[in-house]
Amino acid sequence: MPSLTPKKNLSILVHILGWIMLCVVLLILSPLSWRMGEVALPVQFWWKQIFLISLLITIFYTNSGVIVPRILLKGKNYLYILVILAGAVLFYLMIVYFEQFSLYSEKMHQVFNPDRPFNPNKRWVPGDVFQLLLYLISIGLSTSVSLVEKWQKDEAIRRELDRQRIDTELSYLKAQINPHFFFNTLNNIYALTNLDVSKAQEALLKLSRMMRYVLYENQKNETLLSKEVKFIEDYMELMKMRLSHKVKLNIQIDEPKDDLVIAPMLFLPFLENCFKHGISSQQESEILIKMEIMGETVFFETKNHIFPINPDSPEAKENGIGLVNTKRRLSLLYPEKHRLKFGKDESTNQYWVNLTINLA
């Protein structure tokens, strides 16, 4: 048995209040204003009002729950119009037969026109028009309600599909980033084993600590910015082990507040590009890595020289998947909340990246 959620309870309450308002305004207050104090309306009038209200409620929910979903929403527009017209005829005939059965017309004539003879074949046209207008209002409102509910359901399904698609895509993107990170870092440690075994061992220890972050934090949608900054610092310490005195590191990273959260490993591809393209064993170079934190906004900047890499190395065969994936992750995770700019300064032969993220 389905449970009643607060949203469902609210919908039921709105329906009940709507019908109460209709009954009070159209079918009770208006008749009571007729010659108040001069005539007493017969009991047949109130029986007809109850019958009319019941009929309108039946029409409302039959149309919204059966006719609209099974005919109109199936694209059978002409059939829907025919059904509504047939319903109007049936509605009118039921009102006529009820009035004849309950002697409604005769009793109302005796109250309002006691000095005139009663003609059972003569009907009050304004009353019939008013009742048909009530039918059309009930049909119009129920059709609108049904279409709005259908739109809301479709929108909820679309949002759920979008959420599932985004979750799947993000998982795929993160799965691509992890091997990319492993590949570059292990290449660095492999190069160190030929130069300094003790440094290579120390690098492996740092790498193991970083891998804990990758394995545990990267599986989450968000992590503390302080943990992300610690990961960045460990990564840069690992990269320093392979740098010569010709490379100058300019690192400026603010201490983040404890309550700021961010998607994990967003900055890593930019750092990788700095160390992949911005160092040379023969020429002097400088790498700038800067992170400013103002309130809930993070300003991240990198700048590095561009040196050609060995075309035979595995790095030369990569297609920049880390940067492409990061751009896609930013567009999915922080739509309208981030700004990413990057390019090459031809005058200085430097590549720069500016990233701003609003974490609010």
UniProtKB/TrEMBL annotation:
<dbReference type="InterPro" id="IPR010559">
    <property type="entry name" value="Sig_transdc_His_kin_internal"/>
</dbReference>
<keyword id="KW-0418">Kinase</keyword>
<protein>
    <submittedName>
        <fullName>Sensor histidine kinase</fullName>
        <ecNumber>2.7.13.3</ecNumber>
    </submittedName>
</protein>
<feature type="transmembrane region" description="Helical">
    <location>
        <begin position="129"/>
        <end position="148"/>
    </location>
</feature>
<feature type="transmembrane region" description="Helical">
    <location>
        <begin position="78"/>
        <end position="98"/>
    </location>
</feature>
<feature type="transmembrane region" description="Helical">
    <location>
        <begin position="46"/>
        <end position="66"/>
    </location>
</feature>
<dbReference type="InterPro" id="IPR050640">
    <property type="entry name" value="Bact_2-comp_sensor_kinase"/>
</dbReference>
<feature type="domain" description="Signal transduction histidine kinase internal region">
    <location>
        <begin position="169"/>
        <end position="246"/>
    </location>
</feature>
<keyword id="KW-0812">Transmembrane</keyword>
<dbReference type="InterPro" id="IPR036890">
    <property type="entry name" value="HATPase_C_sf"/>
</dbReference>
<feature type="transmembrane region" description="Helical">
    <location>
        <begin position="12"/>
        <end position="34"/>
    </location>
</feature>
<dbReference type="Pfam" id="PF06580">
    <property type="entry name" value="His_kinase"/>
</dbReference>
<keyword id="KW-0472">Membrane</keyword>
<dbReference type="GO" id="GO:0004673">
    <property type="term" value="F:protein histidine kinase activity"/>
</dbReference>
<keyword id="KW-1133">Transmembrane helix</keyword>
<keyword id="KW-0808">Transferase</keyword>
